[in-house]
Every structure is written in structure tokens, then in C-alpha cells.
């Protein structure tokens, strides 16, 4: 080097040991001039390669670009003018040293290359270049020292001509590179010819400049917007092109196809070798090959992992590069700390050293922040793309898998692949780099520790290694507890669901307390498990907090005791402490990464298994070539549902002429639907040929309805055509239904068509088929779900010879014999074969299987005609039990229609917000708690019985936190805060003691009373650990106490809530409080508070330590705090709303997916796969729209907050340097090592604040539902009636009026009547006359508006509800059973003896059934009594009534007669067993009440007639008219 320069390269006297440092000219000319060039040429090849791969179109030459280029050109000239000046020197025989030739040459070439790169980037559409920015930055940085030297030199006036020329060129050079640096901060316009962006709201990231990308400055606009007002969907940026679902999935699909091809080629090779002789369809030959194949190919499957790596690997590796740099940088600051401490020790070191160290600390910390967040950004984006790719692949696959494959994975499992397994991959990407990064960090830390402390480090490492299994054991145990807790939680939610669904029955029977006890029993177990896991969590927190301390303690103790010459000074102690802190993270992460990888591996196998399923063969049904004149042909067809199964259809030969109507008939399970599936290509074709000409429309047996408007369901992606649409609605008998639906054809249909009856669903499905205007119609029994008169209408208007579809080819599968004479051909299928074909007359004459079929079915036909089937569709709906006046909805009176409309409307709302609890996690009920007013006249979809929940926005009120503190207990809360103070005091104390120890003067080269020092240090540290243990435990206990009291309050209130609340609130919304919100209160809030308090006190103690050691620091705290506060507020507001938006947009992905899986065959039949794939992509993209800013908001915050942290490090170091003379090395070490830790704490503190604010809302939501209005008290002590009341059973109504809810009309108007004890009274009237309301009034489910009811002369409004309800008996209309034993269903309070129960069962004709069950009385009823028939359930209700046997019995007859047999049994039992009781019967079938003492006829809420049946018939009034209609008079 000295030869090159002709002067010395390094001189420490000039550079280091002086107050005015400078570098030698040689160093300046070689190293400083060379650094930028070296960087530039190092990065250039990679960068050019990258640009070649990613082209974004070119940018038009702009003024900016021209300026950059010109300045770079001038720089090249300036550099080379120096070179020519040196040659000029040779001519003048003053040969300069070689460095003056070499460096200008290199610099000049670099500048020229930079100029070319500016243009090359422009042509490749780079708007802001990172490479060049860093290059110009390095140039400026490296020019600062020479610039200073020249200015100092110039003032010293050694002014020679030679220097003057070089100085001038250098000054010009400095100005130019500074200009270039400034210009490179500005970004170019977007490129030309790039795909045109029609986005109304594109993501600013694409066009952001390099600096803006590095610091995430481009996100600021959203942060500000989110702070001003809550973000909404329209404020979100659209998804970047590279992250869009269609792009990502396409790339992944391509790689996966490659994997499959590779495997296929290998298979083919094996196959051709073995199967030459098998080519002529020798069956044994084929089987032989199969066996050979399977043995050869055990190991080879297409690898999904490889496909993932090839698709996402390269992008992820960039993130890994950043991680590597960041890992290395993280070890710079501990080294700088040790230099700083030795600088403070060295009293005569020049001050500028300290400044340089502080500046370097700051610079390295800032660089580390920027690089770390770039790494995270790459990881999270990879994770997001992974999830998108996997979701898209699974969705596309689910549209093409065969039926046998679909059987092997249920819809639930496939949705799980999408949600859980894809999520696992996403979580893994964040930590995946820890696999190599953790070992690297551990090795580096150990290396530096070994240098400081020698082999004593091993003692500390031993402690760390011992802690790992402890943590692992805790983790395993916690997981086991979690599983157990999930079990309890599920059973509690299931029970709550049943209670809320059957709340009306519980009220009528006064059974609430029994069920409340059952819930609380489960809750007790749940909290017991929570308590256990709280112990464990306290332990693991203890291990986590104490680990670094224990490690430091053992290491220091061993170090000072091994040899008394070992002195623990500040440098060793604090540098080791900061290294131990670095070690803490990788060590705790390793086990977690391992378990994450294990989980992801399981997920990978599941996904790969699903993606490798067989796909449907699109060519198994020919669509192009077909025998002329025929629309459908099958020759010698044999089909089965899966390769290995028996064929379901054998030797099918079928020719369907174009335009004919063919009926397919046969017994149940003979293969009619299979034939339709075979024609759709849904079955495996084993043999033969099948062809279908043109497009197909398909109506499945079970209608498939999308969660969309009714109109969209019918259009199904076709263009709207008004007249055609109207005609079709008429023909499919949908007009009346539309009038009844709240929003007409704009009504939102819930999932699986929940708010339509079975018949309506079927008609919508048919309308969809007719609208699609296809060539061939495959109708799989569309007429069975509708009433017989509707079926006739549809056949005449749509399917039949005169219908809309005449002239189309129709294949109709049917059970209905009535229509057979009108079809062209009939195909009779018996056991999977076609037994006969021909016209109706022809087949009758043959007297074959068809004639027999007719004989079998003819008798039943009549029965089917009479019974209005619509009722049983309705029963599905009645299970929801949402309206109290839903007597018989089959009637078509105007009143009913109103009721029914309301009812359906209510369901449509329920289904739209009840199906997915997660959707509602962030919503809140409207503050306005009044039930909605009277239904207004119908105005489109606006009319709602149920109010929407309002989404809570903005900041959470302090009162909510106060409510939680009250639930925990204010004293406990104070105690917890006190413990946290104490814990931090102990921790600070230990470190202050350490700093004091390290400052202890040496005596003969050793430290005194080492044992005492170690002892106190250990005591303080262990005290801290102990307090941590106590505080985290107290906090957990407080959390459990709060959880218990909040849940109890909610449960008590909900059981005391009047019925009207349940009529207007969807169950889903209430269940959500019990599941999601209680879960948050149980398991999310306590750990969040724990972390929050930890980080808060940690940051506070750091500030105190720094201020105590360097009081100046107090000055900068205020500006830093303001900066921090702003970042925090902006972030919290924005991120909270983004989280809400993300969770709301996630559930539609899954619900749309499960819908698609169930309707896959319909989608395929109509060939709409592409549209559905697009729909799925749209839903995924809209989820990403809120997920991506969510990721970036974390990065944005991280960079801002860590910058505050880095400033703290800088000022702590700076003030340490300034106060160097007053400070001892121990204090400097203490304050700076604390400052180095604060960054993490600050970052987490903001996150925890945000989480706490998001989650504390759960408390508010639970409180809100714990404070709704309640019904009258259950028991009023001083008003309790006597034990045997009512003795007579006399009922009096006096001027009695009632309404359902405030603001609605009266349902009963001024009723006055008197029923004597023991009378049997039948109550009749048209629907909506107020029959059910009368019974509800007796039980005070409805409270009187005016007037009163007396029973045995006692006013029922004056006694407690339970006293009243337990003395009356009701047999309700729809029998409700709860899951549990049969005994519990009959006698939940265990009041009756075994004999009494058996007696009741015998009288209710259930004895035979129950005694035949092995469990007898402990027979388990399923939820809702699913495993009993409806008749049996009705008999169980009868048994309940027989057990209670009170003086008054109310019998609400089941609308749709349960089978007549059961009905007769019930009537008979009542006549015999309740002979001397007062019986009030709401009758629907009048023959049951003909022998009653009196009949009450209600009409529109008033008494129309009330007399004995015979007199009423004689008077020929309303009752007589009703009898006549029923054919009884």
C-alpha cells in the first residue's frame, strides 16, 4: 500500500491519539475512494440479472432522468480529468504515485457504469433505485473525511498549484454526488406500457421511492386516515398484482402440474416395460401389471413441498438474506458497549472517540431495525401468498374430484384444510428462518461470551439447556389441558344452544334453575382446568423471566470462584448481560419452531393427499358426436360410483330422441338418480359409451341454493331478461312466494336456503334450470318436495307437453304416477338395469314390472293428495321457534300472511348473521334496546324484525376497563400493580448491585468479599423471580374470578330475560356472547394484560435507570415520548379496524367454499366452474385487502417505535460520553445495556395496548347482555301460594287484554270468561285469532296490558313466576327435548321416584319402547331428541304432563297431525287420566273436541262464541262453518 501511495497508509498518531483526528492521504485515496466502487461492482451482476427477469415496461425519458444522467456523465469527466492531470504530471516529469492513476480510472469507470445503469433501469421501469441510492449514499459518506481534511488543509495555507487543481475537482465531485443522492430520493413516473391500472385505489407501495419502501413511509397515509375515522372497506388499497389470488395460484398450479408430470413420466416408463402384453385388454394381464406397478411405485408421489419451494422459495430467500445481515448486526452493539465502557475507564482518551461510538451504536441500531423489518415483510408476504395459493389450489381441486374421493374427505375436513392447514403454513413462514438463524445466533453469542469469560460460560449454557426440557414439559402439559378445556367449552356451548333454542319450553315448565346448574357445573370444570393452566403459565413466565438472570448468575458465580484472579469488571459483566439477553430469544424459539414444523408437516401431508385425489374424466360423456336425431344415447353402459365398487348401473342401452319427454321410474334405490349422474359424467364409466348433445341443465333431488339473492340464484350468472324471467316465475309458481318474502326477489337467501321451505327451494332450483335455456334437461324428482296441486301446476306449465320446455329434451325422474300418461317414453329401472321401455299404454299392456310398480304406488297416491305437505316443510322452520304466534302457517289468511312474512323475514336475518360466530366477534348490538316497532307497510328489504348489530368503532371507553377491574376486584388489581413495581425494583436492584460490584476497587489484583457480592446478587434476582411467580399467578386468579362473575351475570340475566327478547334477537348473537366473548375473557385478556404490564413497567424502569445515571437524559424524554405516543395512537386505531375488517372478510371464503363443495355437481352440470373459481379469487383478494395493510401496519409501527428506541440508545450513550468524568464504568454499562433492551419492550407495549383495546370489547358486550331487562321475580317469598293450590282449577279472565311487545297491537281484547273447575274447554279460531296467546297469558309469558286472570280466586300477577308455572301443565305444540338422559327430560329436578316415572311412561304408551332399550331410563336423547320419532317425542311431553299432574292442563295440539295413531293415544290418555282436571285444548282438528263441555271460538282477539258444541252447531255460527269446511257437519 505504501508503495502504491508513495506515503504511509496508516499513522495512529494522526488518526487516533489526538484531539483533532484525520486519516492519512493514502488511506483516503485508496480505501475511502474504493468502498463505493467495490460495493457497486459487487451488487451490479445480481441486480442486472434481477432486472432482466422482472420487466415492468419502460419509463418515458423525463427531466429527472436527464439530470441524473448528465450529472453522472459530468462525474465521469471530473474523475478522468484527474487521471489526465496525472498524465500531464508525467509530461512535466513530476510523476505522481500510482494511486493517482489507478483510483481515478476505477472511479471514472464506476461513474460511467452508474450512468448506464440509470438508463437501463429506466428502460426496465424502475421508478426508484435502491442500488444507486446506497451507492450515492456511500460516496457522500466516504467523501466527508477527505472534505474535512481539505478544508482544514486549505486554512493551513499549504497552497500549491497541484493541490489546487485536485481540490477544485474534489469540491465539484462532492457537490455532484450530493445532488445525485438528493435526486435518487425522488421517484420517477410510473412506467409506460405496463398493464394499465384501472384501480380506483391502487396500493402506493408500487410507486413508492426506495427510502419510502425501506421505512414503510408509504403506509402513513392509511395510518392517518384510520386515526381520523374508522377505516371501511372502500378505504383499503387494492391488492398488488403479484399477490392476487389468480396470479399466485396460477404459478403454484404450474409447479404442481410439473411435479405430477415428472411422477407420471416415471410411471409411464415402468408401465410400458411391463404392460406390452396387456395392451389387448387381457384382463389378467392388466391385474398383473397393477401389482407390478404398485410394488415399484411405493415411494414416488408428486411432492407438494417441492412445488411450494419452487414457487415461493426465491422470494423467501431474499428475506433470509436480510435475516442473516440482521443477525450479524445484532452482535455489533454489545461489542460497541464494551468499547464504550473501556473508553469511560480510560480517563485520557480523546472525547471524539465517545461521540463516534455513540454515533456508530445509533447507526448500527437503525440499520438493524430497517433490515429486520424488511425481513419480516418478506416472510409475512410469503406466508400470505402461501395461504392464498393453498386455498386456491384446494378450491379448484374440489371442483373436479371424483365422488369416491369426495367421500373420503368430508366437507368439514376440506374446509379445515383451507382454514387450519393453510394457516399453519402461514404461521410457519414467520419463524422458518429461525431454523438456521437460532443456531447461528447461539454460536456467535457463545463465541463472544467465551472471549469475555472463558470456560465459565459453559455453566450458564448448562442452565439454559436444562431450562429447555422444563419449558417443553410445560408446553406439553398446557396443550393437554387446552384439549380438555376445549371439550368442556364445546359441551357448555352445546348446552347453551339447546337452552336458548328451547327457552320457551323451559319457561313454561319452570325448569330454568335445573339447567342453570348444569351449565354452571360444566363451567366449574372449565375454570378448574383454566386454573391448572394458570399455574403452568405462571411457572413458564417465571422460567422465561428468570432464565437470563439465572444464566448470568451461574456464569458470574463460577467465573469469580474458579480463580480469585478473575475480576468481574463492568465491561465483562454488562457485555455478557447484553449477550445473554440476545441468547434468550433463539433459545425460546427453537422448541416452538420445531413444533410448528411438525404441525406444518402433518398439514402438508393432508393437503398433498387431497390434491392427489383422482379427478373426474371430462371425456367420459361425449358432447360433440352423437347419432343424428337423438339428444342422449348410452350404449352398453356400465357405471359405478367409484373404481373399486360394484357397478350401480349395468348394460344400459338408452336412446332419447331430440325434444322428447322421458320419464324414469322405479323403486327407491334402484338407480334412477345414478342414471342422471352417469349422464352428467359424475360416475366412473367402466364400459360402453355415453353421449349427451349440447348444454345441460340439472335439477338435483335435494335443491342446492346459494347464499345470494333469490334473483341471483335463478339467473345463476346468465344475463337478466325481464319478460323471460317473469314468465318463468309464473310457471314455477314462485309469484306468491315472492310476495311473502320481505324483499321480493332481492331477499337474501341464507346458507343452504335456510329461509326457504323445501318446496320453495325445489322451485327455485327448477327456475334456475329453465332460465339457463339448455338443450337437455335432467330433472331428478323435482316434484316430490312440493304439494300435489303445485306439482300439477309445474308439470303443466313447465315440464309437460304444453309447458315452457316443450321442444327441449327432458329426462324426468319421478315417483308420481299421475303424470305418466302424458310423457312420450317411460324407462323402468330395476336393480340398476333397464327392464322395460315404451309408452304408457304399451307398458301397461305388457303387464311387466311397470304394471306392478303402478299397482304398488296407486293406493298411496290418494293419501298424499290430502295431506298438505307444506306443513312439514314449515316444521323445519318451527324448530327455530322464533315467533310466539306461529300456530298453523299453512293457512292463507291475510293475518297469517303477515305473521308468516315476519317469520320468514326474521329467519332471513337470522341466517344472514347467525351462521358464523366469528363474523360477529366485533359487532355490537344497537344501543337502542327497544324492540322494533310495529311492522310498517312492506317496503322492499328494509323491513326487519331483528335489528342489525352495530360495529363498535373508535376508542374503547375507560368505563369498560373499570368494569373489568371491578370484576377482578379493585384491591387485587392494585396488589398486582404493586407486585409488578416490586418485581422491577428487584430487577433494577440486582443490576445496580452488579454495577456497584464491578466498580469495587481491586486489592492485590483481586476483589474482596466475593461471596457476599454473589449472595446479594442471587438473592435480589431470585426475589424478582419469586415476585414474578406470585404476580402472574395473582393476575391469573383475578382473571378467573372476573371470568366467573361475568359469565354468571350473563347466564343469570339470560334465564330471567322475558320471551319477547328472544323473539327479536337471533340465537347466534346470544351464543356468540357465551362462546367467543367468554373465551376472550377467559383466555385472551389475562395474558395480554400480563404482557402489557410487563412491558410497561420494563420500559418505565429503563427510563428511571437511564435518568438516574445520566440526569440530562430527562430532557430528550419528552420529545421521544410524544413521537412514541403518536405512532402508538395512529397504529392502534388503524390496526384495530384492519383486524376487524380482516375477520369479517375471512368467513365468506369458507362459507362460499363449503357451499361450492356441496353444489359441485350442479356447478359442473351448468359448466360454471370458471365463474366460481373467479368468485373464490375475489373473496380471497378481498380478504387480502385488509390482511396486507395489517401486516404492513405492524412493520410501519416497528420501524417508528424502534427508531424511538434507537434514539434512547443513542442519547444514553451520548450523555454517558458527556458525563464521562463524573460517571464510573459500572453505571455507564448499566444505563446503556438497559437502553439496548428497551426497543423490544416498547414495540411489544404498543402491540399489547392494541390487543387489549381490541379484546376488552368482549367485556363490554357481555356486560351489555347481562343488563337487559328481566321478567318478574321467580319466587316472591311473602306471596307464595299454598302447596296444593290450585285445588279447584277454576280460571277467570276479567277484561283481559294483551299485546306481544310494546308498540304492537293488542292480540287479545278485553276477554272476560269463567271456566269452572274440571271443565273441558276447546279453543278454536282461524289462524292469528289469538288462541296460543291465551295460553301464553296463563303462564305469564305475556304480561297483561290491562285486566287480570285469577286461578281459584288468586291473582296470578301477584305470585312468583315459578310458583305459577310449576302449578300448571302444558303439552306444547312442538315437542322439545334436550340432550341428556330420558329421565332428565322427564324430571330434571329428580322430584319423582322410579315407580312414578315408569307409571307415567306406561300411561303414555312409551313403556315398551323404553324397557326395550338397554339403558332403560338412562337412554341418551340426542340434541333436540333427534333419535326419537316425532310421535315418540310428543309422547314424552305427555309423560311429563302425567308426572306433574296439576289441576289445570293446557293442550296445544300439534298443527301437522302427528300420525293419527299417536294422536288417538294422547287424546285417550288425557280423557282417562285428567278426568277431574280443567283442560283447555287449542284444537286444529275439530273431531277431538266434539265431546268437550264447552267450545270457545275466538276471532281477531275477541270472543265470538262460547257455548256447548251442540248449541253452537244449532246456532249455525262460525263454529258450524268451520265444521262444514272440515266435512264434519
Compose a concise summary of this entry:
The chain has 1529 residues and is of the alpha/beta class.
Notable traits:
23 strands, six-stranded mixed sheet, 1529 residues, 49 helices, 62% helix, alpha/beta
Kindly report how far apart the N and C termini lie.
125 Å
Structural class: alpha/beta
| General shape | globular
Q: Treating each run of at least 4 consecutive H or I residues as one helix, how many helices?
A: 49
In total, the number of strands is 23
Proportion of beta-strand residues: 5-15%
Mean pLDDT: 82
* Low-pLDDT segments, ≥5 res: 278-295, 859-945
Radius of gyration: 42 Å
Estimate the helix proportion, in percent: 55-70%
What is the spatial order of strands in the main beta sheet? 5-6-7-3-8-9
What's the main sheet like?
A: 6 strands, mixed
Looking at how many chains there are and whether they match, the oligomeric state comes to single chain
Structure description:
The protein is an alpha/beta fold and 1529 residues long. Helices cover 62% and strands 9% of the residues. The chain has 49 helices and 23 strands. It has a six-stranded mixed sheet with strand order 5-6-7-3-8-9, sandwiched between helices. A six-stranded mixed sheet has the order 17-20-21-14-22-23, sandwiched between helices. A hairpin with a 2-residue loop joins β22 (1494-1499) and β23 (1502-1507). The radius of gyration is 42 Å and the shape is globular. The termini are far apart.
Amino acid at each position: 500500500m505504501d508503495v502504491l501511495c508513495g506515503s504511509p497508509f496508516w499513522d495512529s498518531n494522526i488518526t487516533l491519539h489526538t484531539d483533532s483526528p484525520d486519516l492519512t492521504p493514502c488511506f483516503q485515496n485508496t480505501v475511502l475512494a474504493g468502498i463505493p466502487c467495490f460495493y457497486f461492482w459487487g451488487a451490479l451482476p445480481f441486480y442486472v440479472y434481477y432486472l432482466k427477469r422482472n420487466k415492468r415496461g419502460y419509463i418515458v425519458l423525463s427531466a429527472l432522468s436527464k439530470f441524473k444522467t448528465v450529472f453522472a456523465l459530468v462525474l465521469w469527466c471530473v474523475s478522468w480529468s484527474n487521471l489526465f492531470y496525472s498524465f500531464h504530471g508525467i509530461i512535466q516529469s513530476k510523476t505522481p504515485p500510482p494511486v493517482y492513476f489507478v483510483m481515478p480510472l476505477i472511479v471514472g469507470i464506476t461513474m460511467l457504469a452508474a450512468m448506464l445503469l440509470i438508463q437501463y433501469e429506466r428502460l426496465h421501469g424502475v421508478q426508484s433505485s435502491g442500488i444507486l441510492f446506497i451507492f450515492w449514499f456511500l460516496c457522500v459518506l466516504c467523501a466527508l473525511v477527505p472534505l474535512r481534511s481539505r478544508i482544514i488543509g486549505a486554512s493551513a495555507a499549504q497552497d500549491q498549484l497541484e493541490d489546487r487543481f485536485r481540490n477544485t475537482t474534489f469540491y465539484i465531485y462532492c457537490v455532484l454526488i450530493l445532488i445525485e443522492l438528493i435526486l435518487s430520493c425522488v421517484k420517477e413516473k410510473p412506467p409506460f406500457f405496463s398493464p394499465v391500472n384501472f384501480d380506483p385505489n391502487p396500493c402506493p407501495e408500487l410507486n413508492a421511492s426506495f427510502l419510502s419502501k425501506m421505512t414503510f413511509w408509504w403506509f402513513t397515509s392509511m395510518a392517518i386516515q384510520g386515526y381520523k375515522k374508522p377505516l371501511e372497506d372502500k378505504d383499503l388499497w387494492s391488492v398488488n398484482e403479484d399477490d392476487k389470488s389468480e396470479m399466485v395460484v396460477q404459478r403454484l398450479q404450474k409447479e404442481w402440474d410439473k411435479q405430477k408430470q415428472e411422477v407420471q413420466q416415471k410411471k409411464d416408463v415402468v408401465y410400458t416395460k411391463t404392460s406390452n402384453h396387456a395392451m389387448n385388454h387381457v384382463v389378467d394381464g392388466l391385474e398383473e401389471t397393477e401389482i407390478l406397478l404398485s410394488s415399484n411405485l411405493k415411494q414416488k408421489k408428486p411432492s407438494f413441498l417441492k412445488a411450494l419451494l419452487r414457487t415461493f422459495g426465491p422470494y423467501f430467500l431474499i428475506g433470509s438474506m436480510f435475516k442473516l445481515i440482521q443477525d450479524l448486526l445484532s452482535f455489533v452493539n454489545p461489542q460497541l458497549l464494551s468499547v464504550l465502557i473501556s473508553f469511560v475507564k480510560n480517563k485520557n482518551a480523546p472525547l471524539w472517540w465517545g461521540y463516534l461510538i455513540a454515533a456508530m451504536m445509533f447507526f448500527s441500531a437503525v440499520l438493524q431495525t430497517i433490515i429486520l423489518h424488511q425481513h419480516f415483510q418478506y416472510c409475512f408476504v410469503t406466508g400470505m401468498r402461501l395461504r392464498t395459493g393453498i386455498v386456491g389450489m384446494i378450491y379448484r381441486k374440489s371442483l373436479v374430484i371424483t365422488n369416491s374421493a369426495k367421500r373420503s374427505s368430508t366437507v368439514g375436513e376440506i374446509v379445515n384444510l383451507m382454514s387450519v392447514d393453510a394457516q399453519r403454513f402461514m404461521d410457519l413462514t414467520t419463524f422458518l428462518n429461525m431454523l438456521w438463524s437460532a443456531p447461528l445466533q447461539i454460536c456467535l453469542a457463545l463465541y463472544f461470551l467465551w472471549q469475555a469469560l472463558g470456560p465459565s460460560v459453559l455453566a450458564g449454557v448448562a442452565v439454559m439447556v436444562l431450562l429447555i426440557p422444563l419449558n417443553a414439559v410445560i408446553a406439553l402439559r398446557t396443550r393437554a389441558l387446552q384439549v380438555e378445556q376445549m371439550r368442556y367449552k364445546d359441551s357448555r356451548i352445546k348446552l347453551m344452544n339447546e337452552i336458548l333454542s328451547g327457552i320457551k319450553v323451559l319457561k313454561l315448565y319452570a325448569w330454568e334453575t335445573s339447567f342453570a346448574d348444569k351449565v354452571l357445573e360444566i363451567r366449574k370444570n372449565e375454570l378448574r382446568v383454566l386454573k391448572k393452566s394458570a399455574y403452568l403459565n405462571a411457572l413458564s413466565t417465571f422460567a422465561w423471566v428468570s432464565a437470563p438472570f439465572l444464566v448470568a448468575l451461574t456464569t458470574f458465580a463460577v467465573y469469580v470462584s474458579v480463580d480469585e484472579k478473575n475480576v468481574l469488571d463492568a465491561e465483562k459483566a454488562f457485555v455478557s448481560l447484553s449477550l445473554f439477553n440476545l441468547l434468550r430469544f433463539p433459545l425460546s424459539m427453537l422448541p416452538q419452531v420445531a413444533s410448528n414444523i411438525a404441525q406444518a408437516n402433518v398439514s402438508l401431508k393432508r393437503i398433498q393427499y387431497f390434491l392427489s385425489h383422482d379427478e373426474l374424466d371430462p371425456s367420459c360423456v361425449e358432447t360433440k358426436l352423437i347419432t343424428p336425431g337423438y339428444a342422449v344415447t348410452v350404449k352398453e353402459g356400465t357405471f359405478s360410483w367409484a373404481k373399486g365398487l360394484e357397478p350401480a348401473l349395468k348394460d344400459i342401452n338408452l336412446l332419447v330422441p331430440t325434444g322428447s319427454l322421458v320419464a324414469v321410474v322405479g323403486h327407491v334405490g334402484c338407480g334412477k338418480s345414478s342414471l342422471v349422474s352417469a349422464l352428467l359424467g359424475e360416475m366412473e364409466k367402466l364400459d360402453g359409451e355415453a353421449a349427451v348433445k349440447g348444454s345441460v341443465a340439472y335439477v338435483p333431488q335435494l335443491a342446492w341454493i346459494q347464499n345470494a339473492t333469490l334473483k341471483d340464484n335463478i339467473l345463476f350468472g346468465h344475463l337478466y331478461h325481464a319478460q323471460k324471467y317473469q314468465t318463468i316465475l309464473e310457471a314455477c309458481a314462485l309469484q306468491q312466494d315472492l310476495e311473502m318474502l320481505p324483499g321480493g326477489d332481492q331477499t337474501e337467501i341464507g346458507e343452504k336456503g335456510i329461509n326457504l321451505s323445501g318446496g320453495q327451494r325445489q322451485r327455485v332450483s327448477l327456475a334456475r334450470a329453465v332460465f339457463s335455456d339448455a338443450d337437455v334437461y335432467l330433472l331428478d324428482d323435482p316434484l316430490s318436495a312440493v304439494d300435489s296441486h303445485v306439482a300439477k301446476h309445474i308439470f303443466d306449465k313447465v315440464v309437460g307437453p304444453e309447458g315452457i320446455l316443450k321442444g327441449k329434451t327432458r329426462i324426468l325422474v319421478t315417483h308420481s304416477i299421475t303424470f305418466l300418461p302424458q310423457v312420450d317414453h317411460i324407462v323402468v329401472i330395476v336393480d340398476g338395469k333397464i327392464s322395460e321401455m315404451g309408452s304408457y299404454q304399451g307398458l301397461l299392456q305388457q303387464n311387466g314390472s311397470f304394471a306392478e310398480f303402478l299397482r304398488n304406488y296407486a293406493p298411496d297416491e290418494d293419501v298424499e293428495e290430502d295431506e298438505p305437505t307444506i306443513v312439514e316443510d314449515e316444521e323445519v322452520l318451527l324448530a327455530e321457534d322464533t315467533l310466539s304466534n306461529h300456530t298453523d302457517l299453512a293457512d292463507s289468511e291475510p293475518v297469517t300472511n303477515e305473521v308468516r312474512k315476519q317469520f320468514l323475514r326474521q329467519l332471513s336475518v337470522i341466517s344472514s348473521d347467525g351462521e358464523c360466530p366469528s363474523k360477529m366477534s366485533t359487532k355490537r348490538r344497537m344501543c337502542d334496546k327497544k324492540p322494533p316497532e310495529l311492522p310498517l307497510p312492506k317496503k322492499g328489504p328494509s323491513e326487519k324484525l331483528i335489528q342489525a348489530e352495530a360495529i363498535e368503532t373508535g376508542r374503547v371507553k375507560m368505563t369498560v376497563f373499570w368494569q373489568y377491574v371491578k370484576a377482578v376486584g379493585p384491591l387485587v388489581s392494585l396488589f398486582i400493580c404493586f407486585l409488578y413495581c416490586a418485581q422491577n425494583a428487584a430487577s433494577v436492584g440486582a443490576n445496580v448491585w452488579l454495577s456497584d460490584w464491578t466498580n469495587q476497587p481491586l486489592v492485590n489484583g483481586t476483589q474482596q468479599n466475593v461471596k457476599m457480592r454473589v449472595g446479594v446478587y442471587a438473592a435480589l434476582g431470585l426475589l424478582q423471580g419469586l415476585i414474578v411467580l406470585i404476580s402472574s399467578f395473582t393476575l391469573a386468579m383475578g382473571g378467573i374470578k372476573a371470568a366467573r362473575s361475568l359469565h354468571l351475570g350473563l347466564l343469570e340475566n339470560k334465564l330471567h330475560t322475558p320471551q319477547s327478547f328472544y323473539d327479536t334477537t337471533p340465537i347466534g348473537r346470544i351464543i356468540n356472547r357465551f362462546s367467543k366473548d367468554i373465551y376472550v375473557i377467559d383466555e385472551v385478556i389475562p395474558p395480554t394484560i400480563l404482557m402489557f404490564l410487563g412491558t410497561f413497567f420494563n420500559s418505565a424502569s429503563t427510563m428511571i435507570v437511564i435518568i438516574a445515571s445520566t440526569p440530562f437524559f430527562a430532557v430528550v424524554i419528552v420529545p421521544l415520548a410524544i413521537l412514541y405516543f403518536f405512532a402508538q395512537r395512529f397504529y392502534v386505531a388503524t390496526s384495530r379496524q384492519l383486524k376487524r375488517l380482516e375477520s369479517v372478510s375471512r368467513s365468506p371464503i369458507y362459507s362460499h367454499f363449503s357451499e361450492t363443495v356441496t353444489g359441485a355437481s350442479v356447478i359442473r352440470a351448468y359448466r360454471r366452474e370458471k365463474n366460481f373459481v373467479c368468485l373464490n379469487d375475489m373473496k380471497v383478494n378481498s380478504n387480502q385487502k385488509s390482511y396486507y395493510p395489517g401486516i404492513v401496519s405492524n412493520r410501519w409501527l416497528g420501524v417508528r417505535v424502534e427508531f424511538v428506541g434507537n434514539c434512547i440508545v443513542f442519547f444514553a450513550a451520548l450523555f454517558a460520553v458527556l458525563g464521562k468524568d463524573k460517571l464510573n464504568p459500572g453505571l455507564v454499562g448499566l444505563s446503556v445495556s438497559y437502553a439496548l433492551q428497551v426497543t423490544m419492550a416498547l414495540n411489544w407495549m404498543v402491540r399489547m395496548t392494541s390487543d387489549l383495546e381490541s379484546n376488552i370489547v368482549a367485556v363490554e358486550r357481555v356486560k351489555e347482555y347481562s343488563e337487559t331487562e328481566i321478567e318478574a321475580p321467580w319466587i316472591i317469598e311473602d306471596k307464595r301460594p299454598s302447596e296444593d293450590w290450585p285445588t279447584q282449577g277454576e280460571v277467570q279472565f276479567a277484561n283481559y287484554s294483551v299485546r306481544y311487545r310494546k308498540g304492537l297491537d293488542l292480540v287479545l281484547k278485553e276477554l272476560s270468561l269463567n271456566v269452572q273447575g274440571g271443565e273441558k274447554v276447546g279453543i278454536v279460531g282461524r289462524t292469528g285469532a289469538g288462541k296460543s296467546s291465551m295460553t301464553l297469558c296463563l303462564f305469564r309469558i305475556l304480561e297483561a296490558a290491562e285486566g287480570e286472570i285469577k286461578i281459584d280466586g288468586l291473582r296470578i300477577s301477584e305470585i312468583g313466576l315459578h310458583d305459577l308455572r310449576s302449578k300448571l301443565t302444558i303439552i306444547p305444540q312442538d315437542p322439545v327435548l334436550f340432550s341428556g338422559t330420558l329421565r332428565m327430560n322427564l324430571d330434571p329436578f329428580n322430584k319423582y321416584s322410579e315407580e312414578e316415572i315408569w307409571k307415567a311412561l306406561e300411561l303414555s304408551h312409551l313403556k315398551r319402547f323404553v324397557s326395550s332399550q338397554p339403558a332403560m331410563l338412562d337412554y341418551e336423547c340426542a340434541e333436540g331428541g333427534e333419535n326419537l320419532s316425532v310421535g315418540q317425542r310428543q309422547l314424552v311431553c305427555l309423560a311429563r304432563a302425567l308426572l306433574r299432574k296439576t289441576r289445570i292442563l293446557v293442550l296445544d295440539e300439534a298443527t301437522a297431525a302427528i300420525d293419527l295413531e299417536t294422536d288417538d293415544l294422547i287424546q285417550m290418555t288425557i280423557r282417562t287420566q285428567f278426568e277431574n282436571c280443567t283442560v283447555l285444548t287449542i284444537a286444529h282438528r275439530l273431531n277431538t273436541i266434539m265431546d268437550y263441555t264447552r267450545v270457545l271460538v275466538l276471532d281477531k282477539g275477541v270472543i265470538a262464541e262460547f257455548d256447548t258444541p251442540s248449541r253452537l252447531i244449532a246456532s249455525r255460527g262460525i263454529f258450524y262453518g268451520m265444521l262444514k269446511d272440515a266435512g264434519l257437519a
